[in-house]
Design goal:
Distance between the termini: 40 Å
Helix content: 10-25%
Number of strands: 13
Radius of gyration: 17 Å
Strand content: 25-35%
Largest sheet: 13 strands, mixed
Shape: globular
Length: 259
């Protein structure tokens, strides 16, 4: 099975080559590495019809509930929503967009995501002089605690006919990664609004056992949950820290009490 290397989609803040130490990742729902062990909650289906739901997949205002705790489904393109009792410095009151699942150099499965509502005080242009034009005014978000001072761009302007050439869509999210040079040109020429692009500094990385521990933690009926959410919620840059978490956590609570 051919997996896409994640490296071309990431860049240092000075746009130098990345050496991530991770050899292969899957960002679409069409591929998944052969795993030495498999967790029931981690799936990547070859064909997912996002217009249909099952008894465990409910919809509210474009938000699809994929379960919580041990029953949660994790796949590229979902947002993981922290419970109230999560006290990790980076993960407390966080919403994490999963953009890749794959094998590291030791053939261990790892899951990568970015926290979507942890803004920094800087624009991407202030932190990287090589990012110029209108898009350089976009706010830079703190995606996590891993990555060796790298940054990445997510956007909704990819696809076969999109103005920002990119790889495959990340799951069913409508979101793509990479293509900074094309994005700068497309935004300056008016083909793409800068709000459709979002920049993240570093990322979160989880190993399978770490994810097991996270989702096993249950307190007062609250646990880590998995959602598919509208593209604009992931790419929203007008957020205070924890603001999107609050919105999505409230949605999770409503899903839990609904029939």
């Amino acid at each position: 099975m051919t997996l896409r290397n994640i490296a071309p989609a990431l860049f240092f803040l000075v746009l130098s080559p990345l050496r991530s130490g991770v050899s292969a990742f899957c960002t679409s729902t069409n591929c998944l590495p052969s795993l030495t062990t498999t967790a029931k909650r981690i799936v990547a289906l070859k064909s997912i019809d996002s217009s249909t739901t099952s008894s465990d997949e409910r919809l509210e205002n474009g938000i699809r509930y994929l379960g919580s705790g041990p029953d949660a489904i994790v796949r590229p393109g979902v947002v993981l929503v922290a419970p109230k009792h999560e006290y990790d410095h980076f993960l407390m009151k966080s919403a994490v967009f999963v953009y890749a699942i794959g094998l590291d150099d030791n053939q261990d499965m790892v899951i990568r995501g970015v926290i979507i509502d942890h803004p920094t005080a800087f624009t991407v242009g202030e932190m990287s002089p090589n990012v110029v034009g209108a898009i350089s005014n976009n706010l830079l978000f703190r995606g996590g605690n891993s990555g060796g001072d790298t940054a990445m761009m997510l956007h909704s302007a990819g696809g076969p006919r999109g103005p920002i050439p990119s790889g495959e869509m990340i799951g069913n999210s409508g979101i793509y990664e990479g293509g900074i040079a094309s994005a700068m040109e497309a935004v300056d020429s008016g083909l793409v609004d800068a709000s459709r692009c979002k920049f993240f500094f570093n990322y979160m990385q989880f190993r399978e056992l770490e994810l097991d521990d996270m989702f096993a933690s249950l307190e007062d009926g609250d646990a880590w949950a998995s959602l598919e959410v509208p593209t604009e919620l992931v790419l929203d840059s007008d957020l205070e820290r924890g603001e999107m978490w609050s919105k999505l956590h409230n949605a999770v609570k409503r899903f839990r009490v609904s029939p």
